[in-house]
């Protein structure tokens, strides 16, 4: 099927239609909710940042930098939610702030800049959050000609072809300068595919080739890019159902798409209100051959919800394995993330780390671990290949919807080792950083930030993967607190 601009959603008509049901959050209610958030011990995780963070050195507070550790951890997440004339109504809809945590010559520094999107410029001009989003209905004053006009560019960031790409899931990548963090423009991969959706979780092969999806109901664009970001191919495939898809996986030979029973059934605003939880339908997994996208197989699993999956791999007998973080349902997406933004305890079950096994006989199973886990990561050098470890956050509780700990699960032994920073910290997703000269996936550090709630600042930590339970080998402290980010990568 030849993709055109009309084959996928999120064009001007789709977004403008969302404005028909628009409602404005009044200034009184916005500031009342802001005051409510301030009563929560973790409210810094969704606090507003009022401007860019100029480059600054971090203060060493524990240990010392490991020999050979050098590079930058780029992170992205929402950091502006509230304006006097109207505020975002969902955590996923704030303006993206790109952070660069740099380690060089044993020292660490921090810089951060907002993605200078069309959305942010419009909203700054009028002093209100205008654009429709995942859980925010739009304001009639919003000027929308395409999905990119509404993009907060707030979900992830990858270094591609010498640029940073700030990613959302319903529009184009936004190119930024990796040194200055200055915004350049949205990336057009082909003129007739301008403004098309590009998920925030591309799958990158060890040689740098990029696979991604752009989802519209029961169809998806399959993007294949060279390591430098040049488009190699784009083809639309049909999906068995219109599931919400935030992430997917890939082996060396296959694309692996999990289709949860949170299904789009109506066109309403906000977007999340258009989905119904239908557990009777179960969960499906679509496996597509990378070499021939017409070759596909569908597996049936029990119902579960999810946001994130880990890297998949093919075993010698044709079995496919991958880890994911399974939710009982998608209440967090529909309701919980609004409550987090407004300072209300979630009162739900955290995600559980699990392994999906797809057998050559067409049967699939979900092997639960009983371990609380989110944001699964692994050795990027082994993407699509058999591996032993998963890195993930843990420590979430029903009354605290944000992680306090980092963990490593060893699939060969079934053992999970963790370090808990304690209830005074909010822990972000951490990145896997290979040690120089190391060849085994155990030869790695974990690098990532936490928010130190007591000190009111952000900290950068480095841990040894094989001794994660010993805690950080080094910690640096910033003089500012940045809200929780979603995703990022080490470069």
What's a quick, concise take on this entry?
This protein is 9% helix and 39% strand.
Structural notes for this entry:
The protein is mostly beta strands and 491 residues long. It contains 5 helices and 34 strands. The chain has helices at residues 12-18, 27-37, 118-126, 147-150, 331-341, and strands at 53-57, 59-63, 71-78, 96-104, 107-114, 156-160, 163-167, 174-176, 183-186, 203-204, 210-216, 219-225, 231-238, 249-250, 254-259, 262-264, 275-277, 283-289, 292-301, 305-309, 313-314, 320-327, 352-358, 364-372, 374-377, 389-394, 405-410, 415-420, 425-427, 431-434, 444-452, 457-464, 474-477, 487-490. Strands 2, 29, 30, 31, 32 and 33 form a 6-stranded antiparallel beta sheet that branches. The protein has a 5-stranded antiparallel beta sheet with strand order 1-5-4-3-34, with no helix packed on it. Strand 11 (210-216) and strand 12 form a beta hairpin. The longest helix has 11 residues, at 27-37. The relative contact order is 0.14. Residues 1-40 have low confidence and may be disordered.
Features:
39% strand, mainly beta, five-stranded antiparallel beta sheet, six-stranded antiparallel beta sheet, 491 residues
Rounded mean pLDDT is 91
Query: Can you tell me the residue ranges where pLDDT is under 50 for at least 5 consecutive residues?
Result: 1-40
Number of helices: 5
End-to-end distance, in Å? 36 Å
Largest sheet: 6 strands, antiparallel
Q: Got a strand count?
A: 34
Structural class: mainly beta
Helix content: under 10%
Shape: globular
Assess the beta-strand content as a share of residues.
35-45%
Radius of gyration: 21 Å
